[in-house]
Each structure stands twice: as C-alpha cells, then as structure tokens.
Design brief:
globular, two-stranded parallel sheet
C-alpha cells in the first residue's frame, strides 16, 4: 500500500512533534509533511528529524501557499490555535482564516483532523470570543465537502510543555495565589491526544464528526496541584484563592496593551470547569486513557 501524505500544521509545537514521531514510526504507512510559519521552525525540525521529514514554510491564511504545501498530502492534521489574542495575532487569523485557507487549497485532501478545545459551543461560554472563533472554525470544516474529525480536549500535559511547567511551578510553591482554586480540571496525557488523533486519521472518512476527550479524572485545581506536589516529593503548599471578578478586572486593565499578558477570554478558558464523560470519548476511539498519577509522574519527574 502506498504511503499517505499527512500535512501537520503547527508541526513545531509539542503535540505536532509527537505526532510526527509517531507517524514516522508507523512502518511507512504515513509520510508526514510539516507545515510551519518560519524558516527557524523548519530548521529545528530538520535538525531533529533529518531527511525523514519534509517541511513547508507557509502563511496559514494564504490559500495559494497552503495549496502548494498540501499538494502531496491526502490527509491533514490541523493543530493551530491560540487562547490569547493580540493586535498582531487575532483569533480570526489563528482560527477561521487557516481553516478557510485549507478548504480553499485542499483539492487533494480526503480527511481533515482538527484539534480544538473543551468549552466550544457551551451556552455558558457564549460571550467568550476565543471560543466563538473556534466554533466558527469548526463549523467551516464540519460543513465543508471534506470529511472532518474535530477533537476537543482540555488541559494537555506533556513532557516539558507549558502546562506541565506551570503545574510544577505551582506544586513547588510554599504559598501561591490562585484564581478560583475550586475550578475543575480534567487534564489529559499528551500521548493520549496523539493516539486519538492518529486513530481519527486512520479511521473511516465517509462523514464528519466531533468528539470530546479528556483525562480519566475531573478534580478541583487545588487537589491537582497537591497531587502534583506529592508526585514531586514535595509537601503541598498553601493556595490562597482570588475571586474571578478581581482577575477579570485586572485583565480588563491589561486589555489596553497591544499584547496583554492575560485577557478575560484566556481567564475564562483556563478557569472553565472541565467535567466530561471521558470514557465515552475513549471508547468511541478504541483507546485507553493514561491514569492521572501516571501522567503526573511522567511529565513532572521524567
């Protein structure tokens, strides 16, 4: 059977790198094609994977550039997205425009797999412009003529990624101020996300569908940090809660900056209560979920 070309957008991110490693290990079934924004990112991929990997440098919103990059691909894993908007990187630039460009360029694509986030489409999050933008991007793909699989996930924990480093910092603090420590977290192991994406990539492509997937446990953030501390061999510190209204007020003040360090949209997403039926999503994909403590040991002590 000939290899299938798989375009991976956002290939230099943590999930993208793991995707490429897994695709290259699958006995020649797939030939990944890394889609990145810059020559620097392409160079880093070349140093890591050598001649095994093809790279393409594109503007994700440019259908012509994407068309050239997708010419040798029949499948696409789309990993690009943001939760913080700036004057130079808007939600529309990160979500809707790339999806529309993929559709405009995708003459050869048989299947698109899009990684999205939990919270999209929920009535209680209807005023969150980031999630509204994500929803519009999802609908562009799901309503297109190209079969699309959308996978929504919450916090992803992987070795040396931002979320794991932030969790380690919290777990190492003797005293820490935290917005809404009762917020429910349902973190998923990055390896499970990659496995799910590959299952979707390899599965039937007759129709579009959407799946929500999370880790096996939904627990308050204060408990997650305490468990992380114990895994790291540390004594859990004191967490002092800060009300959401105060965080929203600070984010509103910072919102006047061209590149605010935090926004109200971002705070809403990070403090969203994640509590879905993870087993249903895992069963539909035919995968097993990594236990939370096993994930914590891998990413915090590995």
């Amino acid at each position: 059977m000939p290899q299938k070309g798989v375009a991976v957008t956002g290939a230099n991110g943590h999930i993208g790198l793991q995707m490429i490693e897994q695709l290259l290990e699958r006995d020649g079934d797939f030939q990944p094609i890394a889609i990145v924004r810059s020559a620097r990112a392409a160079k880093a991929l070349e140093q890591r994977f050598g001649e095994r990997l093809q790279s393409r440098i594109v503007d994700y919103a440019n259908a012509n550039e994407l068309g050239d990059a997708l010419a040798d691909a029949t499948l696409c894993i789309h990993l690009v997205g943001i939760i913080r908007q700036t004057s130079n990187a808007t939600y529309e630039d990160a979500h809707e425009k790339p999806c529309q460009a993929i559709l405009d360029a995708a003459q050869s694509l048989e299947h698109v797999v899009y990684l999205s986030i939990i919270g999209v489409g929920e009535p209680g999050m209807a005023n969150n412009e980031c999630l509204r933008s994500r929803d519009r991007a999802e609908q562009l793909l799901l309503n297109s003529s190209i079969p699309t699989s959308v996978l929504r996930v919450p916090m992803v924990l992987g070795l040396n990624d931002y979320a794991s480093k932030a969790l380690a910092a919290k777990a190492s603090s003797a005293v820490r101020f935290e917005l809404r420590p009762s917020s429910l977290e349902q973190p998923i192991d990055s390896s499970d996300v990659v496995t799910a994406l590959i299952q979707l990539l390899s599965g039937p492509t007759q129709k579009s569908h959407l799946i929500e997937l999370a880790g096996p446990e939904s627990i308050p953030r204060r408990e997650l940090v305490a468990r992380a501390a114990r895994v790291m061999g540390k004594r859990p510190g004191v967490m002092i809660g800060i009300p959401m209204w105060l965080g929203d007020f600070a984010a509103s003040l910072l919102g006047v900056l061209p590149a605010p360090p935090v926004t109200r949209d971002m705070l809403q997403i990070l403090n969203h209560d994640d509590a879905i039926d993870a087993l249903a999503g895992a069963e539909s994909l035919g995968i097993s979920l990594t236990p939370l403590d096993e994930t914590l040991r891998r990413v915090l002590t590995g």
